[in-house]
Amino acid sequence: VQEVNIQMQKEKEAEMQAQQAARSAEHASGGGGGVNNRGWSEEDLQLLIKAVNLFPAGTNARWEVIANYMNQHSSSGTKRTAKDVINKAKTLQKLDPHQKDEINRKAFEKFKKEHSAVPPTVDNAVPSERFD
């Protein structure tokens, strides 16, 4: 009887570990969804946020429109479906404020980096003089 109990305990532990591994893999990929749900780069996330703000609620076939917008404007080359876009938007909605602040800070730093690359030019020109 003890051997059977020990065997059952081992099986339960193995099953719990498998469930935990499945949950952590699902969480790392950004939730359930399809194969294309993985690989959301920072640029894709920013593009998704922009598209969600660009196409408000009430837009006909909103999520298909957002998915098409993402597919046209994304440089990653990953084709997103409406289902993928909905799932990622929902996971972004569920983020706590600290994570949202961190994402916004990263986006701002990237923006600053891109726009500060052009060095400011110093204009040493002398104003023109009038000769009568």
Automatic annotation (TrEMBL):
It comes from the Eukaryota. SMART domains: SANT. PROSITE patterns: MYB_LIKE. Pfam families: Myb_DNA-binding_2. Residues 40-93 form the Myb-like domain. CDD domains: SANT. Residues 1-39 are annotated as: Disordered. Gene3D superfamilies: Homeodomain-like. This is Myb-like domain-containing protein.
